[in-house]
Every structure is written in structure tokens, then in C-alpha cells.
Amino acid sequence: MLKLTRSDYEAIRTHGEETYPHECCGILLGSINDDGTRVVTSIARAGNTRTDSAHNRYNIDPRELVRIQREGRNRGEDIVGFYHSHPDHPAKWSSTDLAEAHWFGCSYVITSVEEGKAALTNAFELTGSDETDKRLVDEKIEVG
Ligand SMILES: [Zn+2]
């Protein structure tokens, strides 16, 4: 399960509306409980470095990722997930999303943005042990 505050949840959705018709992306920071629940305590927006096809691809600059990770650690937060938007596409992961997901045990949040308005927001956990058996599994989002 993924727990988000109402304001972080809304900020993720608003980000997708702002970057429409392009994809937005960002990072979820927080901690993981003993029962495996990921608790998000802050989010960080990231620039989408994919300019060739920014409407259906996203990529976070590795240097930006390292900086956000370091700033999070200074606050006692770890990276627990990532988010991006799907402009005019369903809130389901694509084969590209799976191929480019590498953080096992992290959440991947996808918001569909239809004609500029955020629609569904879904979360998926990357499970498995390596690149050959990894899967994105439906995950419940709890907001509040
Ligand atoms: Zn995607």
C-alpha cells in the first residue's frame, strides 16, 4: 500500500495538468513501514529530459535524482517511489514503463490526464528480484 497526504496527492495530479500535453514526472520521498507500506512525506518535481517524445516517455536526469535523494536523506527521507502522467492515455503502465523501472520495492504512480484534466491516479509496486522477473503489481493508494 502507498500512503499519501491529500496535498501531495493533489500536487501530483496538478503537475500532470500543468505539463499537459507532455508528461510530468517526479519522485516520492518518505519511509517504508515494517508491513511494507510506503508512506510518502514529501514529493519532488523533476524535469522531463525526454524532449524527443515527451508525450509518452519520461526520464529523470540522473544528477537531479542524486540531488533529490541527497536532500531527502538530509531530512531523513528515502526514495519510495516515482510518479508520471499519461496525457490522453489510461493510468496503466506501458511496456516502456516496465522496461525503465529499476527500483524494486518502490511505487510507480501514474495519472491519466484527459484533455488537460487529471482523471485516474493508479499505483503499482515494482516486484521481483532482477530485470528478468520484474513485474509492476497493482497497489492500493490511501489518501489522507
Ligand atoms: Zn508511462
Shape: globular
Q: What fraction of residues sit in β-strands?
A: 35-45%
Q: How would you write the strand order of the largest sheet? A: 7-6-5-4-2-3-1-8
Number of helical regions: 3
Q: What is the chain-wise order of helices and strands?
A: EHEEHEHEEEE
Task: Determine the N-to-C terminus distance.
Answer: 13 Å
Largest sheet: 8 strands, mixed
Bound molecules: zinc ion
Number of strand segments: 8
Rg, rounded, reads 14 Å
Low-confidence stretches: none
Structural class from helices and strands?
alpha/beta
Tell me what you see in this structure.
With 144 residues, the protein is an alpha/beta fold. Helices cover 22% and strands 40% of the residues. It has helices at 6-19, 62-74, 95-99; strands at 2-4, 25-32, 38-46, 78-87, 107-114, 117-127, 135-139, 141-143. It has an eight-stranded mixed β-sheet with strand order 7-6-5-4-2-3-1-8. A hairpin with a 5-residue loop joins strand 2 (25-32) and strand 3. The mean pLDDT is 93. The structure holds zinc ion. Zinc ion (ZN) is lined by residues 84, 86, 94, 97, 110.
